[in-house]
Amino acid sequence: MKVEALAIPEVKRLTPKVFGDDRGFFLESFNARVFAEAGLPTDWRQDNHSRSQRGVLRGLHYQLVEPQGKLVRVTRGAVFDVAVDIRRSSPSFGQWVGAELSDVNQAMLYVPPGFAHGFLVLSDVADFCYKCTTIWNQPSDRSLRWNDPDIGIDWPLDGIGAPSLAAKDAAAPGFKEAEMFA
User: Does the pTM of the predicted model rise above 0.90?
Assistant: First the structure.
């Protein structure tokens, strides 16, 4: 598995070796030894799977208590996946990184605790799977406005128009108003 740091070094893009033939393919999406050698978590607490239609934007989500690290991947379709550093003490505070994840490139993204996370569905439908380092904590669940100009995420909205948002994401506070990590 190839593990590479993105512009914010704590966020990693993982590209597994894919073995394929005319019958299909095989890939290893998690190996505790490989992850440990790369300095990534090996003790996952929760697995999630969501399905969304083209133009759905989920996020930017995080939780203040027991923040989650996430290993995210797409098993069907394509998304633009984003991580925003919301750790006030970080040199990359307020910066974001993004990557396209799809069932074609088979890439994964590791989003560490202390980051807000979200994705935009680019394909007709996408199945999005992710492992979390902690259990979801509803009372500490937070959202950050997806299009806040202080963050300036360059979402690939061409051909999509206005994204479809959950009510909590549409009402999320902006970067300057949101609760953050120290």
Answer: yes
